[in-house]
Structures are given as C-alpha cells and as structure tokens.
Sequence to fold (841 residues):
Amino acid sequence: MRAFAYHRAVAATGVAVLCTGLLPASPAAAAILHDWSTPLAETTVQTDLVAASGRSILTFAGATYRLSTDFGATWRTVRPALSGASGVDHPDYVANGVAAFRVWSGRGVVVDLGSGASRDVDLSRVRTDADEELLALTDTHVLLQDSGRAVLGALDAGLVATATALPDWADLPAAPSRTRSTTDRWAMDAGFAYHLRSYGGSGWVGLATDVDPVDLDGSAGPAAFRVPGDLLFVRPLDSASLEYVYRTAASVNRCVRDLATSTSSCRKLVPTGRNARVYAERMGEALVVTVGARVYTCADDTACAPGRVRLPGRLSVVSTSHPIGDPAEPLLSLGVSGGGPLYSVSAEHRLVLRSAGLTAPAVPGMLGLAADRVVGTDARSSGAGFTAWQRPLTPSGIGPETLLGTEVTDVAASAARVATSGRSGLVLYDDGQKSSRVRRAGTLASLSGPHPLVLATTSTWVGAPLASLKRLSGAVTDNFGTRLLSLAPDRSALVITDLAEQGYRLDVPLPDDLGANTVPVSALLWGDWLGVTFLTYRISGEEFDVSLSARVARIGPAPAWSTPVTGLLADLGDGLAVVCDIESDTYSARAWNLATGELSGLPGAARYSYPAVDSGRIAYATDTDLVVREIAGTGTSAPRVLGSVAPAGCNAWACSWSLQVDATKAFVRGQLVIRDASGHSRALATPAATDGSLRGVTWDGKLDDGSYAPAGTYTWQLSAAASDGSGALRAIDGTQLPGGTVTVTQHRLGRAKLGSVRISDTTPQVGQLLTVAARVRPADATLSYTWYAGATVVASGSGDAGASYQVQPADAGARLRVVVTAQRDGYDPASRGSAWTRAAA
Fold:
C-alpha cells in the first residue's frame, strides 16, 4: 500500500482527494473471482454538531449524517445531498427548521431538519458563469460572485433564483494604521447581507473589522460601522437594532447597535488571553461564548450577564466556528479529541445530557493488503493518530480483528510483514509478532517485503533491510522490493535503481504528449508496471483550476504509456490498479485492469477510506463493511522475491544460517540449494509459504555427505512454484532464480569441555555391566572411551558401545577407571578420567 501517492496528490491539488461510492453512469462490470466481506468494528466515533433548530439536531458521526427530532433521545441516518468532500459540511444559515449549505464553491443545498431531506438551489437562471462562486446562502436569498462583484439574488418557494440585484455596498473607510493584511468575506441572515472586511496586524487578533449591512432587495441598509477587533458574529436583534460580538486581545465584548442613531452600546462579557481561541454564536435565545476550554452562556438579550458552564472532568468543548442554529436550548458537543456526548445548557448554566457518544462502523482511513492479511487504521482511539489493526484473509473469508497499536499514522503490509509508523516511530511485525522498532519519524510511504520506505521532512530512508535504515538521495517515490523508483530532477523520466545491485539504473521517459501545464506528482512501481499521477493546471485570468489523471506503462524496450484515466492512481499491483476519480463534487473508486484497460466501479466505496492493491486483489471499505475483491485476468504474474534477510556468512563448525524470503504471492514446497564453485553442496527442503514468506529454514553448515563445508564463498538458490500455478518463483527482475551468497569460514572454536566423568557403580563385581556418564560441550561432540583395569587397557571404543564395559574374571582384584575423550570439528579435543573404583570382586 502506498500512502505517499495519496498525500502527494492532496498536497499538490490543495484539496482532499477521497474515494466515494458515487460511480460513473455506466461502469464496466469486471469479472470477479472472489468477493469477501465482513462487517466493520463498531466504535464510538467523532460526532460533529452540524445544525439544530427547535428539537431537531443534525450531526455528522463517523461517515454519515444522523438526525434526531426529539432533542437527542433517538437518532437515524439521513443522506442529504451534501458533498462530504473534505469531511463534514457546515451550514451558512440555520433557522426555523431549515439549514442552508454552500457545498464546494458553486452549489447550494437546503436541508429540512425535520426529515433530513434536501433540495438543491437552482442558480441556472441567474448564473452567467458556471464557475461563479457562491458567497453566502439562506433559504430565501443567495449571494454570488460575478466578475469580481458580490451579487444578491432572491429564491422563490422552489429554491430557484429568479432575479439578481447589485447591492448598494458602502465605500468603507481607509484601513487602520499598522494594517498588514485585508480580508473580505460575506455573510447573510434573514435581515441583511453583510460585507465584512477584516484588517490584520502583527498579532494573533485582528486590528478591526468593517461591517456593511445591505437590505435583502439590494438597497442600501444601515450605515456601515467599524468594530475594534475580530468580529465573531452579527445578527438582527429586532427590527431596530443589531447584536454583534467581537474580541480583542483582552476580552470578548457584546454590542447592541441602534440602527436609527447609528450608535452602539457595548459591554465586556468575559476576559480572554491574547492567544486563546474564542468562538461566539447565538443559539436560539442564548448566547454561547467559548474561550479556550471555558464556556459561558447568557439568555438575556438586554443585560446578557454570562455564567460559566461547569464541564465534566477530562472533557472539553468541541467548539465550532459556524452557526448551529436556533435549538430549544444551547447545545455543546464534548469530547477528548472529537465530539462525544451531546449536552444542552439550561438557563442556570447547567449541562443536561441529551445523547451519549454515537457509535458507527469504524471506517478505515487507510488500508493495506498482503497475501493472507488486511491491515488498516481508523479513528476509534482518542489522542493523536489512529488505531492500527490486522485481519487474516483465508479462502473462506476475512477473519477477526487483532489490534496492532494506537497513535499510529500509517500502516502497510507485504507478505507476512506489517509496518506501522506513528508516535512510537517505525514498528515492524513479522507474522503478527513485533520484530523490530526504530525511532525514525516520518511518513511510511510503502512496505515491500523487508524494505519499508520512510519519508522524513528533508530526507528519504529505506530499510536495507528492516530497521537498518539507509538514507537515499533523489526524489524516491516508491519501491518494489529492492527496486527504487524516483523522478528525474527535470521530471522528464522515471529512474529505477536497485539497493542490491550497485550500478543498476533504468531510465523510463515519461509520455511525450504531455502539455506544458502537466506535471507528474506521484509515481508507483510494481514488477514491470509503472504508474504515474499527473496534475494539469489551467490559469484563466484570476481563475486557477487543477485536475488529476493517471497513466500506466509496462517496462520494456519501448514502454508504451496508456491513455489518461481521470483521477488519482491510488495504488498499483500485478496488472491491477485503483483510481480515485475527482471531478467537481463527484468521486468514484474504480478498479483498473491494466492489461485490458477495463475500468470497473467498487460499489459503495466509503468516502474517507483509501483502498489498497496486492497482486490481483483490492481491499476497500464501504460505510459498513470491509471488502476484498479479486479481479479476473489480473495477478497472473509468477511470484517474485521482494527481498531476503539472512546473515552474510557463518562459521561452518558452528553454523546456524537462517534464511527469510518475502515474495509477491504464496508458493508451494521447494528446495534451497547451497553450493560453492568446487561442487560442495547441500540441498534443504523448504516448506510451503501460504503468505508469501519463507521462514524456518536453517543450514547447519554441513554438506549432503554430513561433513562440514570447507571455507569459501557459497551461493544459494531457492526453487519453488506459485501456489496458484502462475509459474516458478523468480528474483526481483522476473527472470532469474532467486538467490544470494553466504561466506563460510572455519575458525577454531577453542577446546571442547568435559564435565565430571562418573562410573555407574564404584564397587564393581565380575560379570557386572558398568556404564559411564559425562557432560560435554558442544553437545554434538563425539565421545570415545578407554577403560583401564589398573594400568592395563581392557577396552576402548566410541559411541554407546564404548560407554559401557562388562567386568571380566581377569579384572578381579583390580581397580577400574575410564578416560573419556571429546572430539569435534572446529574444537581442540579434551580428555577427562573418572575416579578409580574399588577392587572388582
């Protein structure tokens, strides 16, 4: 799985590139070999308070909108036609049971908070340019950007804009001294449309804000006025006055402005620090002010004496900078790192629990896929980062979840290996067990066999192998085993190098039909397949627009690039890719058969879940399920070894050389042959690798004839066949047998060690069988025995036969003794004798 492709494209476009289940009108139907699915784990999810009116509350929990019409007692899922493109949409205006949303820059939606149903605002009659920005919206009026001007339009009962007027905006006064920046924005409510101009200085808090209200028919409204700080909100208090709240570096202040006299009466509400985050909003009859972790409310329009709301321990308010609406009582969403329980605030400033934290399927934000497992991250944990997990994948389906850790930012899987990155650094797992860790901060871009690729702020690192990170030069974007993919400095070609083969370099030119405004932003590598996401930008006057397209090519003497496919190339596998299509407010996740060019939709793919590809399979999530789909005609390549982990050499006389091999797919039992140039060899049977990873093969340094291997350089070669019949196991280049070298030495290991030597009976009798026991190191040393009757050798031998002696008649009257000698290749021999017995009777 490649997180880097996603992050790089998002950074380049400046938008959140996400996959949703909105598919093209006529998606191709791919031939599916297998389709596994399992329900996602249920968890308490972040709950965003979106809008409320009366006893209706609209929230965004997990990846869906939830509506309660009984003030939080019960909830149901609703599907208003909002984008969700960058998370939850927030309304411009909420009142009297409706909420008006600006979706993206040019689309308006009005949601009925009683039913959850939505209707689009029809701007076709008043819009002269489809790219006109929607500046502000209520359920009765729109404010559009037209040729640099803010144009006001009325909506009829069908939400059709029928006429526009050029508002009679006032000429605002000169900017205050010390102004460093000026920002214009617009707002609108049931009384006025407002032109708001903010003046920023050198500090956190703005210098001033100009407020220019106009009537909703476009005619001049009350006189413009200046607020000495950051305006938090403004709204009609009644037909004769405006209420507005602003902050300075020292306090939050509330003012009532008399429209007839153009004078304001202001009073300080609460103090605030210079850098404190401050929000204020009117919720129905109450004013709610949040200063950092403190919350104040007042329900008196005249005096508005705020009282502090006491929050439960360890919980803080999840403040919003958008209007919530006019609920029956003010609402607060409390949590640790996201919305949790939902409370209302009584007139006495006390909390009343309206709803516990909502639960939903834990939709993974990121997925990884390997031969026999699926890994992912989701936001079920509090604090920084996400929860990482893995699930086994078997022919019968997707198995139960096992947690890998919390405070994780990225996760990836390859063969039997899994890697996570996060607060604990880079953590590597082998067959579910933690194997190593290194405190290297950065983004885990990919994991390919034993080679993780980590992108730090100013450098790129690769496991060479595992936690032995090596710093790389150049703009490396991906790796396939030991092969590294980077963009040439001039971005005209892709460059492939090899960690294991110094001097290897392959330059693949990018398509020659790219326009001047098209640049590569990310590139992926899998076997002989290359994939690139291109960004095309267009500038027209003050308009700036970008789009993404994906192209693939197969490495060969003359690589031929495919025609562009709209969207981001999210992941690449064996003849298979996933493309996230981005077009206005519509998205789709599609499987791309690279051999045929066929594109097929992934039904119901969740908006916030990043799919993964392994060989010929895709893992993706819907709003409720985890799905793994195997596409026919893909994943047909023979398995390739992504990397091996083994000691560089061993001492033949004390060898325990163990080989680990990670491949792209499962393979059956095979043979490992170790040989030198002189013909010395050893053949070892290897077990099947159902997860693509060979483990448990150890060479003891001996040859086929049982002797120890002479010193020298040996090569090893692994022979096996794919479990699916796609061919023999090959090296990273796809042609050679996988192999490597091992240096064998023969270093003396010192002297063998013998412990005490004891005869079984120290009062022997003629005819009795005596045995001897001796402790020896190394345990596989050969023991030889010499038996004495007095000074005469009466028996000698080795092994079990030499370790016993039957007392003979000639031994009568003599004392007996045995001398044991330990011998082993690589060790100097050692001898030790037993104590003398009594005279044999």
